Amino acid sequence: MRFEKLALVASALSAVLSCAGCSSADADPKPLDHEPAGWADEVVLPTVEDLDSDPNILEVNIEAQVSSVEIVKGKPTELWTYNGGLPGPLLRAKVGDRLVVHFKNSLPQPTSVHWHGLRVPNDQDGVPDMPYPAIAPGETFDYSFVLPDAGTYWYHPHVNSAEQLGDGLYGPLVVDDPNEPMGLGDEAVLVLSDIAIDDNGKLMPSDGGGDFGTLFGREGNYMLVNGKVQPTLHVLTGARQRWRVINAAKARYFQLAIPNTTFTRIGGDGGMSERPMTEDRLLVTPAQRADVILEPRPAMGQNIASARWVAYDRGFGTAFNRPDEDVIRFSFEGEAAKPAPLPELHRELAPIDIANARPIDISLTIATGDTGRLEMGINGVPSWKAEHVMAPLGEHQLWTVKNTFEFDHPFHMHGYFFQVVDVNGVAPAVREWTDTLNVPVNGVVRFAVSFDDRPGMWMFHCHILDHADAGMMGMVHVQ
Ligand code: C2O
Ligand code: CU
User: Fold this and answer.
1) pLDDT of the residue at 30
2) Which residues 6+ apart lie within 8 Å of 231 measured at CB?
């Protein structure tokens, strides 16, 4: 009897010890259903101090500055950054909070900050001269607005966009919904981008390749995840992760695939989708966001895997002869307990009424300008010659965007979310709020938009920023 009792105490003790993390060989630790502590340390994002103790206000200082950042080991690169890091700091608040940004431009060029996807008042949208001029070197500007919608967003300049983004100016912004269900998985905010640097770690010029570079859209030679080349996530097999993905590249499409793993898309640009949808590949065009759930597993007998970039054919040889490349690596460090089933996700998302919507026809066009330089445009004219689309306040419009090109274009509208009606005649399977939509080669997309509030001049453009700079931009005048 006494012996049995002792044995019991001993086994209880060893259980306690193994739970405390002892790595004794015969310990049998209770499997975790969460990723281990520090699992995403290699992709940790810079943060910034909240200067306001009010829990409903996020107030920060952001300075655009030239800083040295190590992307390639031992070869630091002089980048243009927000607060010295790549990407800029993660701004995170909850829906309904106010964001106050004291911005300082310490760059040698004028700049501005555009809050991509956020329904801000027109004068906070960061487009130069709408109505505030670009922020000159050495000057400051205070942005202040309420965050009206939960979701994943980002911020970037709207002056010389291709050059300034390509040199490092972009950062993530997450607006949380406090009523969101629990159990969506361990979260990582992943800013995907790329950068063009030479063997000495120097940034390559932003106009390389001339007109052909512009036409193709300039992709960098290093793909980055939160500023890192091929970072590793230290994970448990089958543990649930939630990725908030932002494509901050100026031209590159990110199509990701992970062997043995699917992506369950739960949200897009403007927060949650109507319902989740599972796909084998995750496609995020420049400026789009995707909110996805995944439970990565290695192949039998392996303890590593990777999320690979798979060339997406966006026309004219863009996928030709381009091998897959690792973007994110997984190191599997144990087996997770089977996660509880994904909570029921459903968002009531009423369709915009298009019965009496005014039709707007847009063609994405290309021409050789007066100077002999390549010009891209809308309806045959570049942005600097374009007439505005008019929208009386409260009007519903049905936009038809035709692509006359051999290249895809990610079409972005400022200030308003829209609802995709169809792409080449096919309605989307799931309704979402969208601000950036891919218009395929020689294709046609239709979307519905309601200019329900916030009058002003709002921009729309291709988010291949070389295309935008070459003239593929326009304005909606909401009044
Ligand atoms: Cu990311 Cu004009 O936008
Ligand atoms: Cu384009």
Assistant:
1) 52
2) 42, 43, 225, 328, 329
Q: Report pLDDT digits (tens) over 4-60.
A: 444 444 444 443 333 333 344 444 555 567 899 999 999 999 999 999 999 999 999
Give the pLDDT band (50/70/90) at residue 448: very high
Measured between alpha carbons, how far is residue 382 from residues 141, 386, 388, 398, 400 in Å?
Answer: 30, 6, 12, 22, 18
Tell the residue nearest (CA) to atom 1 of ligand 1.
116
CA 1–ligand 1 middle distance (angstroms): 76
Q: What is the mean pLDDT of residues 358-378?
A: 90
Percent of the chain with pLDDT over 70: 93
**Which atom, in ligand 1's list, is nearest to the CA of 158?**
2
From 296, 246, 307, select the one nearest 87 (Cα to Cα): 246
Ligand 1, CB within 6 Å, residue ranges: 114, 116, 156, 158, 287, 412, 414, 459, 461, 463
Distance CA 197, CA 167 (A): 10
- To the question of pTM greater than 0.85 for the whole model, the response is yes
Residue with tokens 């369709």: 351
